[in-house]
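Entry: Zinc-type alcohol dehydrogenase-like protein
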Amino acid sequence: MSRSSAMKAVGFLSSKPVSDPDCLQVFDLPEPDLRPTDLRVAVEAVSVNPADAKVRQRTAPDAPLDAPRILGFDAVGIVEAVGADVTGFRTGDRVWYAGDASRQGSNAELQAVDHRIAALAPTSVSPEAAASLPLVSLTAWEMLFDRLQVPTGNRPGTLLVIGGAGGVGSITLQLARRLTCLDLVATASRKESADWCREMGAHATVDHRDLLAAYRASGRNYAGFIAQYADLSQHWAAMCELVAPQGRIGTIVETPDRIDISALQAKSAALMWELMFTRSAFGTPDMAEQGRILFRVARLVDDGVIRTIDTDLRHGLTAETFRAAHETVEIGAMIGKLVVKY
């Protein structure tokens, strides 16, 4: 798309319900400053995540912000400029990344992003298809291999994925099916979501509405690993029953409810949190691991090992496009990912 001298971006000043036509607005902003470790990227396509809706809903419920908050995490785009300390990238490269929650987002013509959390985008798929993957791939990879520490190669075990048809669940199933020998069970309550989970790699699906009974009815007793991507408190009691002795539960879902973590004591089981933004938020020594993960995922896409999960394509860097996208995401019944092409 052509660009004016002032950068166009979509964001908000106050938290409003998605039913309000002004919950998101278009702003004309200066081009982002370039830090020494940054890339400045002309964004081509993004995806819309539940995290976008949560930030919009929670950031300014009582008083307007002093400056617009620009949303957007996933992005694919072309490098327009590189900072003085950047290595491994040059202008003209097509890159992908999931961004940094402490900085302005990708719902903009231009975005500045630290090069350590970016990688060259896959070349075998369109920018909009690729945009469906960065955040969920990073989350799924970190969940599987950093938090749950699932075994690769020929070591057996069982992984239960709660919320298998969503974005993170879809990539978790693909990565686990291709890179491990685990028995994969995913929760799905509708035929279309169950079919999708099997397409992503699940060996079996179970109904989350009575998770304990459904899992045991599948002929399985325990799961050594549980990846929890839906309602934490709703499934807590069942997970405590289903996790194997010395097993691990990983979750990305916060809850306002009290949960009894001592229920895991007898099994010496672990509860692990996964937040994809931790490395960038704290500038951890291994922050560049996210760039390396994205590099590996891009190769897996180009080699045909995993597929993109774009299932809903919208067009245009407009407030209405993103308001409608937020409305869809907030329903909570998405299969795959919603993508916006600029």
